[in-house]
């Protein structure tokens, strides 16, 4: 249990710094945009309605974003760029960050313990499990890259 508490505490500090930093970068980017040639677009009625909605209802989105993969950075940046008030943002950051840290600590420590036990008791099975995991990750990467690159037949059809 001490391993999980230490890991969760470390991850919590990391997520608070990372997500809080992303929020700050978003806030600063918006401040810069408000002083740039984009100021007219940002002051439109539609944009201001969206900004008010994020300021009011964005905290639950920020908190839940920590339970997703790949969305939490965007949610924190948008919360900052839409100037979500800190009294609404910080509780969402603390709650969502705590959930993220606990989930990753429990799963991470558990996975390492299982792998450690597997390697200690059945080395061949442990090596096989790691090899299968690596092959699966490589397969996903190759699949995504092939889907992202248009084939030559797609580009010929688009040109005609």
What would you say this structure looks like, in words?
- By secondary structure, the protein is mainly alpha-helical.
- The protein contains seven helices and no strands.
Query: Using only CA atoms, what is the Rg?
Result: 22 Å
- Number-wise, the strands total 0
Strand fraction equals under 5%
Helix-and-strand structural type:
mainly alpha
Q: Write down the secondary-structure element order.
A: HHHHHHH
- Termini Cα gap: 64 Å
Helix content: over 70%
For the residues shown, what is the average pLDDT?
Answer: 84
Structure annotation, total helices: 7
Backbone shape: flat
Low-confidence stretches: none
Largest sheet: none
Structure described in brief:
The protein is mainly alpha-helical and 160 residues long. The protein has helices at 2-34, 39-42, 45-65, 72-81, 86-121, 123-148, 152-159.
């Amino acid at each position: 249990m001490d391993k999980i508490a230490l890991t969760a505490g470390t991850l919590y500090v990391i997520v608070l710094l990372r997500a809080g930093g992303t929020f700050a970068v978003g806030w600063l980017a918006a401040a810069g945009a408000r002083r740039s040639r984009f100021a007219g677009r940002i002051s439109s009625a539609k944009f201001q309605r969206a900004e008010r909605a994020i300021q009011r209802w964005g905290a639950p989105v920020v908190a839940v974003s920590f339970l997703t993969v790949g969305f939490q950075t965007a949610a924190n940046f948008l919360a900052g760029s839409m100037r979500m008030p800190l009294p609404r943002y910080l509780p969402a950051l603390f709650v969502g960050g705590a959930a993220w840290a606990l989930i990753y600590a429990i799963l991470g420590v558990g996975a390492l313990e299982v792998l450690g036990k597997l390697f200690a008791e059945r080395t061949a099975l442990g090596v096989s499990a790691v090899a299968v995991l690596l092959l699966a990750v490589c397969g996903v990467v190759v699949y995504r890259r092939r889907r992202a690159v248009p084939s030559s037949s797609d580009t010929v059809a688009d040109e005609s």
